Amino acid sequence: MAIRVGVIGATGTTGGVVVNGLLSSDTDFLVTSFTREASVTNTANQKLKEKGVGIVGYDLDAPSEQLVEKLAGIDILISCMTWEHLHLQLLWIEAAKQAGVKRFVPSEWAGPAPRGILDIKDKKLEILGAIQRARLPYTIIDIGCWYQVWVPKVPSGRSDHAHRAYVDHRIVNDGDVPFALTDLPGIGKYVAQIVVDPRTINKRVVVYTEVLSMNEVWETMAKASGETPVKDYVTEPELHEIIATCRARLDASPEAWSHPDNIMDAVNFSMGQYRISWCIRGDNTPEYANYLGYLNFWTLYPDFPKGRSLEAFYRSVLEGDF
After folding, report:
1. Mean pLDDT by 10-residue block, N- to C-terminus, for the chain (322 residues)?
2. Active-site choice (70, 97, 121, 124)
3. NmrA-like domain: from which residue to which, for each copy (predicted)?
């Protein structure tokens, strides 16, 4: 019998790779994209429909009973909502509980961290509290940092097209603190494995492809390219100053955080906090995840294919295949 999976945010970057992983799995998944009513017929959803994904529109302003009805029969509900919409998961949690959803995967998709370090993680922990208060079965999946975030520039310019200009690529302090990285296209395959395992019900799972320091990331690009990547540095005090400055501007008005004109402040604020967590505190590691009580994907599934290495990814970037 097919397992019915609903994905919220299936047309986004994370949602897209999750859907692809489900569809390519040996498990018989019947996938539904839950999308806003106004987006049902857009190009992204039509492409999903061509792959065999069901498209169901929703309106969160409608009576809650309508959302419950739409979730009827869904076994697993996976949220891939972006950070600015995390609070909307509260409506889905209540509806999923009433509809009898057997497992909810909230929007995590980053690295393990304690409360009080990352504003985004704190919001996600509040969501987890709501899930647990509702006694809705769940699985938390953290995947570390995407390979695709860190593409150092090389003198020839061959990696420029994949370099994320809005992400500060300066190496933090001495650059020797390791953190977990995962190849974005591989995430869906990991998810498809995790969500059908009864051992992961009401558990947190960490999965990653490599664990490297920023220096090792830059060395990997050097090996792949045969060139010396550009290296600049930022200190911890400088990061704290960036965070404080951006927070002050963003807190100036309630709409500032989600306004398109403030995207750089929002990114620099969040990435500043992430880099303190990942590159100074060392939170984004299998060891710290174990301390927090996470299950390790590679302990659960030691024979699962490891996936593309960071060096192989960089080689594809350098060849223009990105």
Report:
1. 95 96 97 94 94 94 92 97 91 97 97 96 96 98 96 97 92 97 96 98 98 98 97 97 94 75 88 97 98 98 95 97 74
2. 124
3. 4-242
